[in-house]
Amino acid sequence: MAIQSLFDYLKESPSPYHAVAAAARRLEAAGFAPLAEHEAWTLEPGKGYYVTRNQSSLIAFRLPEGPLTGWRITAAHGDAPTFYVKNTSLGSDRQYERWEVEGYGGMNCATWQDRPLGVAGRLVVRTAAGVESRLAASDRPVAVIPSLAIHMQRDVNKGHEYNIQRDMQPLAGLNGAAPDLLDALGQLEEGETLLGADLVVFPWQEPCLVGGGLFMAPRIDDQACAWATLEGLLTAEVHPFAGQVYCLFDNEEVGSGTRQGALSSFLPDVLTRAGQALGLSDEQRRRALTASFALSADNGHAVHPNFPDKSDPENKVYPNSGVVVKFSAAQKYTSTGLTIGLFRALCDQAGVPTQLFANRADEPGGSTLGHLLGQQVSIPMVDIGMAQLSMHSAVETAGAEDPQYMADACRAFFNSRFAPTADGSWTL
């Protein structure tokens, strides 16, 4: 069942590093071979490969059986708004010990308070052989961000401005009882030294079905799309002439302008090296790009049942009503009429419902991967996603049928044999 497969992925992915590792396990189980950026690549037609950068971004690709003439690309992100632990030592006063954290991305702070929290990410360890990165996650709740009692802020329900340094530092316990970070994440082996860490706080809540047709989980934005696009790739057939590419990027929530973000050279580097390994000339690689197409997969805002006026009156989207196709005149989404039309035609052929999303003219909304990735690889793209509620809350809500819709749409996309016939025209 699709929803249970998604739940398994979400549970395995409390941090971007874990999200990449979970994707890599699924790729290897399907026969994809790991590559390293610092090593030479030898590639074979019809085979699948994957490569990681910073352990928090991953690109997988499967080569066509025949001559490569274009790429089918999906892009999603594995990071989510959270709090990064600034130091592995505990801050304290005479009675309390706290994790010292810094905000990452635009989260709804109130939703993070008064719930059990874990810590996950990677430890950087000095070993006898050198320096090693090691994934780690607490196996129990290790902190809480306690809210200030309403008796001490009588007007809190009228609105509150959250200060991360004052309001949102997680309490790890009482002095003498708070777990040491290495105790929480697993002891180092004898002779090893902790040199550094990249650790995030995560809500200690498993995904679950709620009511009729809904599910709740942390990080639905955007790990649900990370799962669905991967599922589409793994269930697709090897293409006769198009390379199939799966991108899982880090740092979307803070602008993507990092070595491992969508604005980096990661995707161009992989496409260039793959073309070179296949013996393509520079002209052939450029022609393949012009015949390519990409899906930028990141969720959209469903109509809120209590605030329907926040949605555009003519472009409302609902959970379990199909894949959301997003449009923005300001180009915050990369969709055009042409790319929307092609994607919806592919979904129609596959029997997958779609729905069109646009923000209210007076509500700017957010942006996503597509318009940033398009600055690195100049190919036609469309922004898609699932309709969800409570975006950027510690725990979000979405439709239980939508992960399957997204996976089916991505499989149809990877299998499709469309090709450009002129600027603005495609055969199906």
Description of the structure:
By secondary structure, the protein is of the alpha/beta class. It folds into two domains: 2-80 and 218-427, 3-Layer(aba) Sandwich (Aminopeptidase); 82-203, Aminopeptidase i, Domain 2, CATH 2.30.250.10. 24% of the residues lie in helices and 27% in strands. It contains ten helices and 24 strands. It has a nine-stranded mixed sheet, with helices on both faces. Strands 13-14-22-21-17 form a five-stranded mixed sheet, with no helix packed on it. Helix 5 crosses helix 10 (402-415) and helix 8 (337-350) crosses helix 10 (402-415). The relative contact order is 0.17.
Number of strands: 24
Integer count of domains: 2
**Order of strands, widest sheet:** 1-2-3-15-4-16-20-18-19
CATH architecture of the largest domain: 3-Layer(aba) Sandwich
- Kindly state the percentage of residues in helix: 10-25%
Query: What is the gyration radius calculated from CA atoms?
Result: 22 Å
Number of helices: 10
Class per helix and strand makeup: alpha/beta
Q: pLDDT below 50 for ≥5 consecutive residues: which ranges?
A: none
Q: Please state roughly what percent of the residues sit in beta strands, choosing from under 5%, 5-15%, 15-25%, 25-35%, 35-45% or over 45%.
A: 25-35%
Give the CATH topology of the largest domain.
Aminopeptidase
Q: What's the story with the biggest beta sheet?
A: 9 strands, mixed
CATH homolog superfamily of the largest domain: Zn peptidases
